[in-house]
Amino acid sequence: MQIQQLRAFREVAAELSVTRAARNLNYAQSTVTAQIQGLEESVGAALFDRSHRRLALTEAGARLLPYARIIIDAAEEGRRAVAAAQATPRCDARVRRVRRARLPS
Fold first, then answer.
1. What is the pLDDT of residue 92?
2. CA torsion angle for 69, 31, 56, 46 (degrees, to 10)?
């Protein structure tokens, strides 16, 4: 299970269209289809019902969707946290322990 697969899954679930999801993600339709198929292989279940020329979430897809959203949100939050940490100026001052030297008498 890869984050890009989950993003594709979330977008297809929102649009109920591989074509619109691909357009929104700036991917080729075949790429989105491959990502969905890879995710379905990974979870061992069909995530969409592709009958009647319409897409609909299967029960497995409906169960996975909230977790996909949580994972994607957590990944994006982590990315933002790292970016913020890199953008924050750091003070590089180091305190060194100074040995007491004996002064000549």
1. 59
2. -80
Return the amino acid letter for 33: T
Q: In 10 A of CB 58, how many CB atoms?
A: 15
Dist CA 30 CA 59 (whole Å): 24
CA dihedral 35, 55, 22, 45 (to 10 degrees): -10
Measured in degrees and rounded to the nearest 5, phi and psi for residue 93 equal -70, 135
pLDDT in tens, 36-48: 999 999 999 999 9
Residue from 64, 55, 56 nearest 10 by CA? 64
CB 3 within 8 A of CB 72: yes
User: DSSP letters along 12-75, please?
Assistant: HHHHT-HHHHHHHHT--HHHHHHHHHHHHHHHTS--EE--TT--EE-HHHHHHHHHHHHHHHHH
- Residues 6 or more apart whose CB falls under 8 angstroms from that of 62 comprise none
